[in-house]
Every structure is written in C-alpha cells, then in structure tokens.
UniProtKB/TrEMBL annotation:
This enzyme's EC code(s): 2.7.1.49, 2.7.4.7
InterPro entries, sorted: HMP/HMP-P_kinase_dom, PM/HMP-P_kinase-1, Ribokinase-like
Residues annotated as domain Pyridoxamine kinase/Phosphomethylpyrimidine kinase: 20-264
A GO molecular-function annotation: phosphomethylpyrimidine kinase activity
Reaction(s) catalysed by this chain's protein: 4-amino-5-hydroxymethyl-2-methylpyrimidine + ATP = 4-amino-2-methyl-5-(phosphooxymethyl)pyrimidine + ADP + H(+); 4-amino-2-methyl-5-(phosphooxymethyl)pyrimidine + ATP = 4-amino-2-methyl-5-(diphosphooxymethyl)pyrimidine + ADP
Pathway assigned to this chain's UniProt record: Cofactor biosynthesis; thiamine diphosphate biosynthesis; 4-amino-2-methyl-5-diphosphomethylpyrimidine from 5-amino-1-(5-phospho-D-ribosyl)imidazole: step 3/3
Protein name: Bifunctional hydroxymethylpyrimidine kinase/phosphomethylpyrimidine kinase
Keywords noted in UniProt: Kinase, Thiamine biosynthesis, Transferase
Lineage: Bacteria, Bacillati, Cyanobacteriota, Cyanophyceae, Oscillatoriophycideae
Length: 268
C-alpha cells in the first residue's frame, strides 16, 4: 500500500530558556506562543524551576555542556529561523550560549535579559549581568528589558516616560539593533506603555491596560511572540507591534488557576 506522506513547510523558532513547572512562563510559555503562531518550536533548557502560582521553591541549573548539546542538536539538523534567549541563570551558561550564537551568525535573535522579576527581585548575580551585557546583548536583533532590567543596564532610575526614552537610548549603545523597554510593571498611566528605539525611530507603543493580576509569563510571552513573528519574516518593529497585540489577548484570557498569581493564557 502506498503511504501518503504529508509534509508541511513551517518556520522554526528556538527558545533557550528555563523550565517553569507551573507551565506559565519560561520554555512552556514560549512553546505555546510559537504554536499559536504556527511556528514549530524547539528548545534548549538552561535550568529547571520548581514553582507554582504561589512561589518558586527550587532552581537547578543544567550543566553548560548540556545546554550546548541541545542547541547544537536542534540547530545543526532542524535549523532556526529565529532564536530567543530567556532565563540563562548564570555567567557560565550565558558565556557558552553567547559563544554558540556567535558561531551561528543568528540574524533574528530576541534577547529577553531576564535579571529581575516584574516585582523587582534580582534573579542573577553581577558576573552574569556583565556577561549578558558584554557578550549576548551586542548580538541581539531586539533586546526586551523590563523596567528594572532597564534601570540596571542604563544605570539610571526610571519613573517617567522621558526616563524610559532616555534609558532606551543609553541601552541601545550596548550594541543591540533595537531596544524595547517594557512598561508592564509600571504604575498608573505607564502600565502597558513600551518604548522602542532602533537608532533612528523612537516610538512609544501603547495598548489598553488589562485589569488582571494573573500576569505570570508576560515577559516570556511577548518576547516569544516577537521571535515567532521574526521567524515569519516580519520586520523587527512590526514583529514587536504584533507581539504586543498577542500579549494583550493573552492577558484578556489569563488563567485563574492555582491559589496565587495565574499565568497569561494562550487558549483563544
Ligand atoms: N523564565 C522562567 C523559567 C521563569 O520561571 C520565569 C518567572 O518565573 C521567567 C522566565 C520570567 O517570567 P515573566 O515572563 O513573568 O517575566
């Protein structure tokens, strides 16, 4: 009997990030976001978190050799139209990831510089911040710091829209092709206002504010949606604008699961 072999050409995106056992952020959010965009997702895990909607109870880093092996395995065979990095956890992992990305000459790379949670808690040490700044950020197509990460990278306080604009211009000098400072964690009128700077265009991107406290995974989701859109060959600014629309929908469909802060939803 003849076997029919359906074959589908599909863009591929790779996420290099941590596992969130609660399924709300990290690699789990990235793969759901890629799937929603009809982009095939591959992954290289950097660390494993034990967490739920209430707290993170444990974080285990994977050996850097394991991270490299995962990246090599998927990129050498399947390829990657776009790549994102999320939580890289420590300087050792960052250094090997930066080295590998450099050797692949990845030209569609979203770097989510996961350093500080949206609530302001620092997640990585000074050596890791320096490695991120010096070795990974210069390779990024778009860098997506939240307010606190932007404060560290720009070495300034951020309270107003003018502060966000000034920080975007300072951070741009670290070498990424574009910077998106996310205002999701800002209070009042600036919540949901992001600032884009690519060396020429300084744009304030606004969306409605969605009133939900189930916002876990927002940072991962927007950078993953940007990566999916880059894999679909959108320009970086268009990819970012479309990703913002996706995140707004995901916030509207946030999940009231668990007893604490639920994640944004990808089921709509
Ligand atoms: N990556 C992992 C593995 C995480 O556990 C978290 C937060 O818990 C994040 C990234 C950042 O999450 P968010 O998208 O809420 O900024």
């Amino acid at each position: 009997p003849r076997v029919s072999q359906p074959s589908v050409k599909i863009p591929v995106a790779l996420t290099i990030a941590g596992s969130d056992s609660g399924g709300g952020a990290g690699v789990q959010a990235d793969l759901r976001t890629f799937a929603f965009h009809c982009v095939h997702g591959t992954s290289a895990l950097t660390c494993i978190t034990a967490q739920n909607t209430l707290s993170v109870t444990r974080v285990d880093a994977l050996p850097p050799e394991s991270v490299i092996a995962q990246i090599d395995a998927v990129v050498n065979d399947i390829g990657a139209d776009a790549i994102k990095t999320g939580m890289l956890l420590n300087a050792e992992i960052m250094a090997v990831v930066a080295e590998r990305l450099q050797s692949y000459h990845c030209d569609r790379l979203v770097v989510d510089p996961v350093m500080v949670s949206r609530t302001g808690v620092c997640l990585i040490d000074d050596e890791a911040i320096a490695t991120l700044r010096d070795r990974l950020i210069p390779q990024a197509t778009v860098l997506t710091p939240n307010r606190y990460e932007a404060q560290i990278l720009a070495k300034q306080e951020i309270h107003t829209l003018d502060d966000m604009k000034a920080a975007a211009e300072t951070i741009f000098k670290l070498g990424s092709q574009a910077v998106l400072i996310k205002g999701g964690g800002m209070r009042g009128k600036l919540c949901g206002v992001d600032v884009w700077f690519d060396g020429e265009t300084l744009e304030v991107l606004r969306t409605e504010t969605v009133g939900t406290h189930h916002t876990h995974g927002t940072g991962c989701t927007i950078s993953a949606a940007m990566t999916a859109n880059l894999a679909l060959k959108q320009s970086p600014l268009e990819a970012t604008k479309q990703a913002k629309i996706y995140l707004t929908q995901a916030l509207h469909h946030a999940l009231a699961i668990g007893e604490g802060q639920g994640p944004v939803g990808h089921y709509f």
